[in-house]
């Protein structure tokens, strides 16, 4: 791994220059930027375990460990923070309800292993086959259906405290349009803070668990359960998440390459392997599945500092925070009303990211194959289609993702044969971050 060289005078970034991954500013500035990365990832990373019922401290621990592992596997050349992936929320919620947390963790492990395998294939065979498997119309559909499938979950929390939920939702929206830059990128986190304050005023929070929690201690670990009969029935619903993680990782690598050095694209396979390994480890011991974070790309773009040294700092800080059960207990006090308000926005945004993939890649919806790829899959996800054979059940995310893949590829095969308007697809698109500054079109 390269040793960081000091950029310029170590204090400032010259106009038109960036601090490259193998460079760093002085350690004081590096620690400060690392702390910014922690704040940027925190709002999203803690929300996933809160929404799924996983221990927050455990998720933070494996988020930090996963980030350090990512830096090692990518040879310290690819700046990235691995935080909790929203793509896991729907399958984890469904699996926990039907088969328990251990089975949900087994699903996370399965995703991690499969993602790592894909990473090895990409490392040796390139990314072209992924582009063909999952062109923009399919990638956008799968991302969108995962978000829209969660709409009933948002309403379940919202209706328990509609006043708090409404204030939280309004705050998220206002912060996103009032602020530019860093504050705009953490509008969801700021909305949670406002909603939490309202919940405190309305007496909706119980602090007894916080008082009982220790200041320092190990997180709460849970072990993945592959032995229960219900486990193998729920693992299938996790597999579409692999497609989302591929899109997120590939998009992240391409974004960093665009802003630093095109040679960074050579590390795409290693990025997938690293995220797969981090997700596998987290799943084995009770953490949420991980992914590279667009929020932290925003911090790098704003600061022009792409140094991997800052991410070593961020990973270490996350691990230290995880060693305080009291901090985890505080996050677990977030009431249903706040969660209902923020998830109404958040789940919808996940769906909109999928639609943004269509827009950014100019998907041609005059072609029937594209129309039905998206239409059938989204209705399956929103309506909650299921298919069951005995104890084995396929949920809406699995069915919708499978429908998108089958309709697109089989439909294209027929359309080319009949010359009725096939879709040529295109390269796998980047999955954009939630919030942040709008991009100007020139």
Automatic annotation (TrEMBL):
Signal peptide: none annotated. NCBIfam families: ncs2. It comes from Microbacterium immunditiarum. The keyword Transmembrane helix applies. GO terms for molecular function: xanthine transmembrane transporter activity. The chain crosses the membrane at residues 54-73, 80-99, 105-130, 137-155, 161-179, 186-210, 230-247, 309-331, 337-359, 371-390, 396-415. It comes from the Bacteria. Belongs to the nucleobase:cation symporter-2 (NCS2) (TC 2.A.40) family. Pfam families: Xan_ur_permease. This is NCS2 family nucleobase:cation symporter-2. The keyword Membrane applies. It is found in: Membrane. It is a multi-pass membrane protein. Keywords: Membrane, Transmembrane, Transmembrane helix, Transport.
């Amino acid at each position: 791994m390269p040793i960081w060289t000091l950029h310029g005078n170590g204090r400032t970034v010259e106009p038109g220059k960036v601090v490259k991954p193998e460079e760093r500013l002085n350690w004081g500035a590096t620690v400060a930027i690392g702390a910014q990365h922690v704040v940027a990832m925190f709002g999203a990373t803690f929300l996933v375990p809160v929404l799924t019922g996983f221990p927050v401290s455990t998720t933070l621990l494996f988020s930090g460990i996963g980030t350090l592992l990512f830096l090692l596997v990518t040879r310290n050349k690819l700046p990235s923070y691995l935080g909790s992936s929203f793509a896991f929320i729907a399958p984890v919620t469904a699996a926990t309800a039907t088969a328990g947390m251990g089975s949900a963790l087994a699903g996370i492990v399965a995703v991690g292993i499969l993602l790592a395998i894909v990473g090895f294939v990409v490392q040796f065979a390139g990314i072209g086959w992924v582009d063909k498997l999952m062109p923009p119309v399919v990638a956008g559909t799968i991302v969108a259906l995962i978000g829209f499938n969660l709409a009933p979950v948002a309403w379940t929390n919202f209706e328990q405290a509609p006043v708090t939920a409404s204030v939280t939702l309004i705050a998220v929206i206002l912060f996103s349009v009032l602020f530019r830059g860093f504050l705009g990128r953490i509008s969801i986190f700021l909305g949670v803070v406002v909603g939490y304050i309202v919940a405190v005023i309305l007496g909706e929070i119980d602090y007894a668990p916080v008082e009982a929690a220790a200041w320092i201690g190990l997180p709460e670990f849970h072990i993945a359960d592959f032995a229960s009969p219900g486990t193998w029935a729920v693992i299938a619903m996790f597999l579409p998440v692999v497609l989302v993680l591929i899109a997120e990782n590939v998009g992240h690598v391409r974004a960093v390459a665009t802003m630093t050095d095109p040679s960074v694209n050579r590390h795409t396979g290693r990025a997938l392997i690293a995220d797969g390994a981090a997700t596998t480890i987290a799943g084995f011991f009770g953490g949420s599945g991980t992914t590279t974070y667009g929020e932290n790309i925003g911090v790098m773009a704003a600061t022009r500092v792409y140094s991997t040294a800052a991410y070593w700092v961020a990973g270490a800080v996350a691990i230290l925070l995880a060693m305080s059960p009291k901090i985890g207990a505080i996050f677990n006090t977030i009431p249903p009303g706040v969660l209902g308000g923020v998830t109404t926005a958040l789940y919808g945004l996940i769906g909109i990211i999928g639609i943004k993939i269509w827009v950014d890649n100019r998907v041609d919806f005059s072609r029937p194959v594209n129309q039905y790829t998206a239409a059938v899959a989204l209705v399956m996800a929103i309506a909650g289609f299921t298919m069951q054979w005995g104890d084995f059940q396929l949920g809406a995310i699995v069915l919708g993702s499978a429908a998108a893949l089958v309709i697109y590829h089989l439909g294209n095969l027929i359309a080319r044969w009949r010359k009725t308007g096939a879709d040529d697809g295109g390269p796998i698109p980047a999955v954009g971050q939630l919030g942040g500054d709008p991009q100007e079109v020139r």
